[in-house]
Design goal:
The chain is elongated. It folds into two domains: 66 residues, Arc Repressor Mutant, subunit A (Orthogonal Bundle), CATH 1.10.10; 144 residues, Orthogonal Bundle (Tetracycline Repressor, domain 2), CATH 1.10.357. It is mainly alpha-helical. The chain has ten helices and no strands.
Amino acid sequence: MPTQDHSPSKIGDETHKSGKQGSGSPITARGEATRRRILDAAEEVFGEYGYYEASISEITRRAGVAQGTFYIYFRTKREIFAELVEDIGKRLRASMRSATRSIADRTEVERYGFKTFFEFVATHRRIYSVLQEAERVAPEAAHAYYDGLARGYTHRLNEAMDAGTIRSVDAEAIAYALMGIGHFVALRWLVWSQQDDTRPDDMPPLPDSVMDSVLDFIMSGLK
């Protein structure tokens, strides 16, 4: 089991001196693909071992890159952890925007938004443990994750209120309340009930009765 971080290799140090090390955006498709592999491996390793037991050597091993390559993109273990939280938030928001962008009916927006969120959690089951640790390890990243979700949600709720399709209330307060519903429903049916080694593709979807009950409750409150 990986138990410790590792200091930069000579290659990493030289790259740093040239001004290319750490969280710089890759300028080639190949560089972007490498950075993506490292982040995907980090999601696995941090989710499996936790922040303190995870190591850069294990991340690079799973990504199939040299440790020196790691330092071209990230300076430290904490930096990649914080960027992983940011990356998870960006991917989740992009998925939800894509699923709901062309939908006008608020009930359907909630349905497809929650459905997309639950599907994302089902295929990224370890994000919950990553986010929980982020509150202690990189609180600024954790807060930015939730703030990013809430801002988009608040905007869409305000649009629906302005259009008169839902009643006028404090949109930000409702956004966080609805995020809380999604958070704990996913924990109960997609995380806590799947604490074995079930492959994500084999995990059962959220029961229809649960989805219907959640949406009925939400829309009864918003109408």
